[in-house]
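Please go through the protein record below and explain what the tokens say about the fold. Record follows.
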Amino acid sequence: MMNADTIAGELLEGTGLSVIDLARLALETIEELGGRRRKNVLVRLRAVMRAGVQAVKDAERTVSFRKAAEQSIAERRDLRPTSQRDIRHYVRRFLKDERFAARPLRAVSTRECRELLQREFGHSPSSFVKARAILSSVFSFGMRQEWCNANPVSRITVPRVQETPIAPLAQEEIARLETTAEQPRFRAMKFSLHLLLYNGIRPTEVSRLRPEDIDQDARLIRIRARASKTGGGRLLPLRTPAEGVDLRIPRDWLRRWRALRRAAGFTRWVPDICRHTFASYHAAHYRDLPALQLEMGHRDLSLLRTRYISPVPPREAARFWEQ
């Protein structure tokens, strides 16, 4: 019968380890754990061994941050081109740091993520917030692939973004846009201008409207989830400007919209100012923020209170809705 030393020797053959090496490792572990009772020591040694084996396996089952980020983008190929473009822009900024890009995903720390975000996006709170969300999504994707066990970005505080209120268009400016839309070459834009001013629909959402999204019988406009900026659909009242107006959205709408603004004398244009105009005049006239929130498609009232609503005299608000 072979003794224990012979059996251990055969098991260790080819590993380069000896029985004395294993004994030293066991003693070092016992000293770290504390305790000398044989039964207790064996239980704890087995627990350490299992945990250690699992940790080694986990460490080996990962990919670089670069590969995780690239595959995360590929998974979102069903997003709209503009959304994909935004994500790629931020990921390219992450990958500029070659050391960070090469790091095993499982080994990336919260400190490294915070330093990257601060270095690349610390100058702009809004960019920092968006970059943080996209970086977090890479690690969330990695967790689903079992390339990491935790999301280090979740421990990074989201900075508060101070929204700057935007003044709505004045009555004279609204009149210039509507008068320009009456010109023969812009008449096809009259309905869509009405949607911008009197429904608060975003320009990109207007450009994506289909004929079946406009229900004249029910007097409703449907903003499909796929066409919405936030990914949430909503129903809006159909407020047509007049009888006989063409309710179709012309092709090449964004180019036509820029041309109409220039023809109306606007050399500089604040993005989404028509949406701010709608919200401000709606709030001043109807005084129903929950209803306005639903039409705007906001999750809560915070954006209306901090960014979208500017004071409008009640008389001007009434004139706006009487047109």
Remarks:
- Strands lie at 214-215, 220-223, 234-237.
- DSSP finds 16 helices and three strands in the chain.
- The CA atoms of residues 64 and 311 lie 51 Å apart.
